[in-house]
Amino acid sequence: MCGKNKGVVALVSKAVENDGGSKPLVLHCIIHQQSLCGKCLDMSEVLKPVISVVNFIRSTGLNHRQFHFDVIANEIKLFQNPFDSDIETLAPEVQMEIIDLQCSVI
């Protein structure tokens, strides 16, 4: 994928259209879709509330310690019974540890 005029997809599309076929449906892989969206979208409206929540949690030491303790407590619960967890909602490194635990038990 080197561009809209010289890339493989563009050349194949032109060849199909020149032979009388209908224009093929072109899809980017998910990595390229994320890259293109990152270039085109203004993420400031999405990030402002996230940044404000993170800043609020980190604003006082007590809030931050309580939040950090809750995160650790939830991770401990996951490792006590790895089969009873929703893996898709976890961080990637925790997902891999849970999958390793599930595979070693079976």
Write a concise synopsis of the structure shown.
The protein is an all-alpha fold and 106 residues long. It is built from 5 helices and no strands.
Number of strands: 0
Uncertain residue ranges: none
If helices are DSSP runs of H or I spanning 4 or more residues, what is the number of helices? 5
The amount of beta strand, in percent, is: under 5%
Distance between the termini: 43 Å
Which range best describes the helical content: under 10%, 10-25%, 25-40%, 40-55%, 55-70% or over 70%? 55-70%
What coarse outline follows from CA principal-axis ratios? elongated
Classification by helices and strands: mainly alpha
Q: Radius of gyration, Cα only, in angstroms?
A: 23 Å
Which keywords apply here?
106 residues, elongated, 68% helix, General transcription factor II-I repeat domain-containing protein 2, 0% strand, mainly alpha, 5 helices
Describe this structure in words.
This is General transcription factor II-I repeat domain-containing protein 2. It comes from Trichonephila inaurata madagascariensis. It is built from five helices and no strands. The chain is elongated, with a radius of gyration of 23 Å. The protein starts with 7 loop residues before the first helix and ends with a helix. The protein is an all-alpha fold. The relative contact order is 0.05.
